[in-house]
Amino acid sequence: MELTQAMARTFARAALGHVGQEYPNKLDHVMGSDADARTPRDLHPAFFGSFDWHSCVHSWWTLLTLLRLYPDMPEARDIEALADKTFTVENLSAELAYLERPESRGFERPYGWGWMLYLHHEAARHADHPWADRMEPLARAFAMRFGGYLPVLTYPITVGTHGNTAFALVLAREWAEPRDRKLVEAIDEWSIRCYGDKSNYSGWEPGGDEFLSPVLVASLLMSRVMGGPEFSVWFESLIMDNGWLDRECHPVTVTDRTDGKIAHLDGLNLSRGWCLRAIQRARSNGAGADLLERRAVEHLEAALPHVTGDYMGEHWLASFALLALLTPEKPR
């Protein structure tokens, strides 16, 4: 299960088709007065497409990642041209101004925050373009928000949807590692406090509109925070010893891909595949490796044929497919 150029081109064409598509659109917009009744493009000149702000941000991550991996594919020039048009100082300054509104304190928290940092992290790999430099003030503003949010977040948010804390911190921590040691330390301290004593998972998942597994995405975060041996012991006591992975972690059924909430379940299959692969690479203990990889493959096989086809999934699923496909199986 690896990313191929044919797959990359399919993902790229889909994302190119919707990052600039303004409608339909679901705003995360708190209004302070009548003057705030504005269109998505007016509010968010850089990220007005892809149905909602966060999906537009991570679809741009998809496009820039594919551009880096396949710079000679036919779609590469279209990605570059659209990025040059989109990531202007004017557009990104408007995004920052929106974020600084008093009404925007909770804007896209924490899912969009993490994805914006991850997009900036990818843009920085394109040193021959000015995109990362222009995004940096916006990325730094979101990083500061994480720094202020974690000290007051007493309990982790463990839903399988956008509010999930662990998922956002996985992305934010990768951005912070080469840029912001204080944020890395804050994430690690918070994660150990909130997840370090967890064991014997018995949560009820999947939920009917989830695209994340609460236990697996928390495990992925802890695999980044802990060392290999320590993480292996923690993970064994969390879900391996009690049989949850063997008994309950199976691909989920998607009954209606035209329903945006039910279509989330394709994302659950993809994100589980990603988490399972990444967790296995992080473990120092090889026990259960075959089961982890088998479950990862089963989830990816269930979802990859459905990344494109209906807009309710197509406007975001490629990002999660890419996360999974860029995490290879652990060498044996």
Summarize the structure.
The chain is 58% helix and 0% strand. It is mostly helical and 332 residues long.
Task: Please explain how this structure is put together.
By secondary structure, this protein is mainly α. The chain folds into 2 domains: 14-28 and 40-195, no CATH class; 205-332, no CATH class. Helices cover 58% and strands 0% of the residues. It has 16 helices and no strands. The protein has helices at residues 5-18, 40-43, 53-69, 76-86, 89-99, 111-123, 131-149, 165-176, 181-195, 214-225, 228-240, 244-248, 264-282, 289-303, 311-314, 317-325. α7 packs across α9 and α8 runs antiparallel to α9 (181-195). The protein is globular and about 55 Å long.
Mind summarizing the main beta sheet?
Answer: none
How many helices? The count is 16
Overall body shape: globular
Helix content: 55-70%
Helix/strand class: mainly alpha
pLDDT average, as an integer? 96
Work out the number of β strands: 0
Instruction: Work out the radius of gyration.
Output: 19 Å
Q: Pick out the low-confidence regions.
A: none
SSE order: HHHHHHHHHHHHHHHH
End-to-end Cα distance, whole Å, is 16 Å
Write the layout of secondary structure elements.
Elements lengths: L4 H14 L21 H4 L9 H17 L6 H11 L2 H11 L11 H13 L7 H19 L15 H12 L4 H15 L18 H12 L2 H13 L3 H5 L15 H19 L6 H15 L7 H4 L2 H9 L7
Features:
mainly alpha; 2 domains; 16 helices
